[in-house]
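Tutorial, part two.
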Amino acid sequence: MDERVTRQAASDAVSGLGWRYMLGTLRASVPVGSLFQGASVALQAVAACGEEADEHLSIDVRVDRVVLTLQTRRQATVTATDVELAQRIAASGLPTEPGDLQLLEIAVDAMDIAAVRPFWSAVLGYAEGGPSEPLTDPAGRGPAVWFQQMDSPRTQRNRIHLDISVAHDEAVLRVEAALKAGGRVVSDERAPSFWVLADPEGNEACISTWQGRD
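Running the prediction step on this input gives:
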Protein backbone atom coordinates (compact mmCIF):
# COMPACT_ATOMS: atom_id res chain seq x y z
CA MET A 1 0.00 0.00 0.00
CA ASP A 2 3.00 2.35 0.41
CA GLU A 3 3.32 2.83 -3.34
CA ARG A 4 3.86 6.48 -4.24
CA VAL A 5 1.01 8.12 -6.12
CA THR A 6 1.33 11.01 -8.54
CA ARG A 7 0.26 14.51 -7.60
CA GLN A 8 -2.66 14.34 -10.02
CA ALA A 9 -3.84 10.96 -8.75
CA ALA A 10 -3.57 12.07 -5.12
CA SER A 11 -5.49 15.27 -5.80
CA ASP A 12 -8.21 13.49 -7.75
CA ALA A 13 -8.62 10.83 -5.05
CA VAL A 14 -9.25 13.23 -2.15
CA SER A 15 -10.58 16.53 -3.52
CA GLY A 16 -14.18 15.37 -3.22
CA LEU A 17 -13.57 14.49 0.42
CA GLY A 18 -12.56 18.00 1.49
CA TRP A 19 -8.82 17.25 1.37
CA ARG A 20 -6.16 18.90 -0.83
CA TYR A 21 -2.77 17.75 -2.06
CA MET A 22 -0.05 20.27 -1.04
CA LEU A 23 3.75 19.94 -1.12
CA GLY A 24 3.91 16.17 -0.85
CA THR A 25 1.13 15.93 1.72
CA LEU A 26 -2.63 15.55 1.95
CA ARG A 27 -4.23 18.23 4.15
CA ALA A 28 -7.66 19.05 5.48
CA SER A 29 -9.13 21.38 8.08
CA VAL A 30 -11.93 20.64 10.54
CA PRO A 31 -13.63 23.69 12.11
CA VAL A 32 -14.11 23.48 15.90
CA GLY A 33 -15.38 25.76 18.64
CA SER A 34 -12.96 24.94 21.45
CA LEU A 35 -9.74 23.11 22.28
CA PHE A 36 -11.81 20.40 23.94
CA GLN A 37 -13.72 19.84 20.71
CA GLY A 38 -10.45 19.96 18.80
CA ALA A 39 -9.00 17.23 21.00
CA SER A 40 -12.07 15.11 20.31
CA VAL A 41 -11.60 15.61 16.58
CA ALA A 42 -7.95 14.58 16.89
CA LEU A 43 -8.92 11.39 18.73
CA GLN A 44 -11.50 10.57 16.10
CA ALA A 45 -8.95 11.00 13.31
CA VAL A 46 -6.42 8.82 15.11
CA ALA A 47 -9.06 6.15 15.69
CA ALA A 48 -9.97 6.17 12.01
CA CYS A 49 -6.33 5.63 11.04
CA GLY A 50 -5.69 2.98 13.68
CA GLU A 51 -2.15 1.67 14.05
CA GLU A 52 -1.09 3.46 10.85
CA ALA A 53 -1.61 6.88 12.43
CA ASP A 54 1.92 7.05 13.88
CA GLU A 55 3.58 6.63 10.49
CA HIS A 56 1.20 8.79 8.46
CA LEU A 57 -0.91 11.28 10.44
CA SER A 58 0.07 14.66 11.92
CA ILE A 59 -2.42 16.87 13.75
CA ASP A 60 -2.36 20.59 14.61
CA VAL A 61 -5.04 21.42 17.16
CA ARG A 62 -6.12 25.04 17.53
CA VAL A 63 -9.05 26.68 19.31
CA ASP A 64 -10.93 27.23 16.04
CA ARG A 65 -9.74 24.39 13.81
CA VAL A 66 -7.85 21.15 13.57
CA VAL A 67 -5.50 20.72 10.61
CA LEU A 68 -4.93 17.10 9.56
CA THR A 69 -1.89 16.12 7.49
CA LEU A 70 -1.19 12.76 5.89
CA GLN A 71 2.19 11.72 4.49
CA THR A 72 4.22 8.50 4.53
CA ARG A 73 7.06 9.73 6.73
CA ARG A 74 9.79 7.29 5.76
CA GLN A 75 9.29 8.23 2.10
CA ALA A 76 8.40 11.91 2.65
CA THR A 77 5.68 11.64 0.03
CA VAL A 78 2.04 10.67 -0.45
CA THR A 79 1.38 6.99 -0.96
CA ALA A 80 -1.71 4.88 -1.55
CA THR A 81 -1.91 4.35 2.22
CA ASP A 82 -2.28 8.08 2.81
CA VAL A 83 -5.09 8.25 0.28
CA GLU A 84 -6.83 5.36 2.01
CA LEU A 85 -6.45 7.00 5.41
CA ALA A 86 -7.97 10.25 4.10
CA GLN A 87 -10.91 8.19 2.89
CA ARG A 88 -11.21 6.50 6.30
CA ILE A 89 -11.19 9.83 8.14
CA ALA A 90 -13.84 11.22 5.79
CA ALA A 91 -15.95 8.09 6.28
CA SER A 92 -15.71 8.53 10.07
CA GLY A 93 -17.94 11.59 9.75
CA LEU A 94 -15.44 14.38 10.39
CA PRO A 95 -16.43 17.49 8.36
CA THR A 96 -13.10 17.89 6.58
CA GLU A 97 -12.73 20.94 4.34
CA PRO A 98 -9.89 22.63 2.39
CA GLY A 99 -10.40 26.09 3.84
CA ASP A 100 -7.52 28.21 5.14
CA LEU A 101 -4.81 25.77 4.08
CA GLN A 102 -1.41 27.07 3.03
CA LEU A 103 2.25 26.18 3.43
CA LEU A 104 5.11 28.68 3.50
CA GLU A 105 8.60 28.08 2.11
CA ILE A 106 11.57 30.47 2.02
CA ALA A 107 13.74 30.38 -1.10
CA VAL A 108 17.33 31.64 -1.09
CA ASP A 109 18.99 32.38 -4.44
CA ALA A 110 22.68 31.43 -4.28
CA MET A 111 25.73 31.13 -6.52
CA ASP A 112 27.30 28.41 -4.34
CA ILE A 113 24.51 26.46 -2.67
CA ALA A 114 26.89 24.03 -0.96
CA ALA A 115 28.63 26.96 0.73
CA VAL A 116 25.52 28.70 2.07
CA ARG A 117 23.40 25.68 3.11
CA PRO A 118 25.44 24.91 6.28
CA PHE A 119 25.04 28.49 7.54
CA TRP A 120 21.27 28.44 7.21
CA SER A 121 21.06 24.97 8.73
CA ALA A 122 23.10 26.12 11.74
CA VAL A 123 21.44 29.51 12.29
CA LEU A 124 17.93 28.04 12.05
CA GLY A 125 18.68 24.75 13.83
CA TYR A 126 17.23 22.95 10.81
CA ALA A 127 18.01 19.46 9.49
CA GLU A 128 20.07 19.52 6.30
CA GLY A 129 18.79 16.39 4.54
CA GLY A 130 20.12 15.66 1.05
CA PRO A 131 21.95 18.29 -1.02
CA SER A 132 18.95 18.85 -3.29
CA GLU A 133 16.37 18.78 -0.49
CA PRO A 134 15.08 21.78 1.50
CA LEU A 135 16.18 22.44 5.05
CA THR A 136 13.41 21.46 7.45
CA ASP A 137 12.44 22.27 11.02
CA PRO A 138 12.93 19.09 13.11
CA ALA A 139 9.93 20.14 15.22
CA GLY A 140 7.77 20.56 12.11
CA ARG A 141 6.76 24.13 12.96
CA GLY A 142 8.80 26.52 10.80
CA PRO A 143 8.74 26.86 7.00
CA ALA A 144 11.10 24.86 4.84
CA VAL A 145 14.09 26.71 3.35
CA TRP A 146 15.32 25.75 -0.09
CA PHE A 147 18.00 27.05 -2.42
CA GLN A 148 17.72 28.15 -6.02
CA GLN A 149 20.77 28.11 -8.26
CA MET A 150 21.74 31.50 -9.69
CA ASP A 151 23.40 31.73 -13.11
CA SER A 152 25.15 35.02 -12.36
CA PRO A 153 25.45 37.39 -9.38
CA ARG A 154 22.63 39.86 -8.84
CA THR A 155 23.07 43.12 -6.98
CA GLN A 156 19.89 44.97 -7.97
CA ARG A 157 17.33 42.36 -6.93
CA ASN A 158 16.39 40.63 -3.70
CA ARG A 159 17.83 37.15 -3.32
CA ILE A 160 15.36 35.76 -0.79
CA HIS A 161 11.69 35.32 -1.63
CA LEU A 162 8.69 33.58 -0.08
CA ASP A 163 6.90 30.64 -1.68
CA ILE A 164 3.29 30.31 -0.54
CA SER A 165 1.76 26.97 -1.47
CA VAL A 166 -2.02 26.97 -1.51
CA ALA A 167 -4.72 24.57 -2.59
CA HIS A 168 -4.82 24.48 -6.39
CA ASP A 169 -8.37 25.80 -6.52
CA GLU A 170 -7.49 28.79 -4.31
CA ALA A 171 -4.44 30.03 -6.21
CA VAL A 172 -6.12 32.40 -8.66
CA LEU A 173 -8.08 34.03 -5.82
CA ARG A 174 -4.86 34.53 -3.86
CA VAL A 175 -3.14 36.08 -6.89
CA GLU A 176 -6.09 38.41 -7.47
CA ALA A 177 -6.05 39.46 -3.82
CA ALA A 178 -2.34 40.27 -4.04
CA LEU A 179 -2.88 42.38 -7.16
CA LYS A 180 -5.73 44.30 -5.54
CA ALA A 181 -3.42 44.97 -2.59
CA GLY A 182 -0.92 46.77 -4.83
CA GLY A 183 1.14 43.88 -6.15
CA ARG A 184 2.03 43.05 -9.73
CA VAL A 185 2.69 39.93 -11.77
CA VAL A 186 6.38 39.50 -12.57
CA SER A 187 5.80 36.26 -14.47
CA ASP A 188 2.98 33.80 -15.03
CA GLU A 189 4.84 31.65 -17.57
CA ARG A 190 4.84 28.66 -15.19
CA ALA A 191 1.27 29.06 -13.93
CA PRO A 192 -0.52 27.15 -12.48
CA SER A 193 2.69 25.68 -11.06
CA PHE A 194 3.56 29.13 -9.74
CA TRP A 195 3.01 32.85 -10.28
CA VAL A 196 5.86 35.24 -9.48
CA LEU A 197 4.46 38.38 -7.85
CA ALA A 198 6.11 41.52 -6.47
CA ASP A 199 5.14 44.23 -4.02
CA PRO A 200 5.32 47.93 -5.01
CA GLU A 201 9.08 47.99 -4.23
CA GLY A 202 9.89 44.85 -6.18
CA ASN A 203 10.17 42.31 -3.33
CA GLU A 204 9.01 38.98 -4.70
CA ALA A 205 6.78 36.13 -3.61
CA CYS A 206 5.48 33.09 -5.47
CA ILE A 207 1.99 31.65 -5.24
CA SER A 208 2.52 27.95 -5.85
CA THR A 209 0.39 24.83 -6.43
CA TRP A 210 1.15 21.21 -7.18
CA GLN A 211 -0.18 21.46 -10.72
CA GLY A 212 2.17 21.25 -13.68
CA ARG A 213 4.95 19.50 -11.71
CA ASP A 214 4.50 15.83 -12.65
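The mean pLDDT is 92. In part three we will examine how such features are distributed along the chain.
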